[in-house]
Amino acid sequence: MATFLYKIGRMSFRRRHFVALMWVALLTLAGVGAAGAPAAGNSSFSIPGTEAQKAFDLLEQRFPGTSADGATARVVFKAPSGEKMTDPGNKATVQETVKELSDGSEVVRVTDPYQAKAVSKDGTVAYAQVSYKVSGMELEDSSRDALEDSVQDARKAGLTVEIGGDALQTVPHTGTTEIIGIAVAAVVLVITFGSLIAAGLPLLTALIGVGIGVSSITALASALDLGSTTSTLAMMIGLAVGIDYALFIVSRYRAELAEGRDREEAAGRAVGTAGSAVVFAGLTVVIALVGLSVVNIPMLTKMGVAAAGTVAIAVLIALTMIPALLGYAGRRVKPAGEKGRLLGRAKNKDGRDGQAKPAKPNLGTRWASFVVRRPVAVLLLGVIGLGAAAVPAASLELGLPDDGAQPTSTTQRRAYDLLSEGFGPGFNGPLMVVVDAKDSDDPKAAFTQVGDEIKGLKDVVTVTPPAPNKAGDTATITVIPDSKPSSVATEDLVHSIRGKGAGIKAESDANVLVTGQTAMNIDVSEKLNDALIPYLVLVVGLAFLLLIVVFRSILVPLKAALGFLLSVMAALGAVVAVFQWGWLADLMGVEQTGPVMSMMPIFMVGVVFGLAMDYEVFLVTRMREAYVHGEKAGQAIVTGFRHGARVVTAAAVIMMAVFAGFIGSSESMVKMIGFGLAIAVFFDAFVVRMAIVPAVLALLGRKAWWLPKWLDRALPNVDVEGEGLRTDTDRGDQDRELVHTP
Question: Which of 607, 605, 610, 601 is nearest to 528 (CA)?
Answer without folding.
Answer: 601
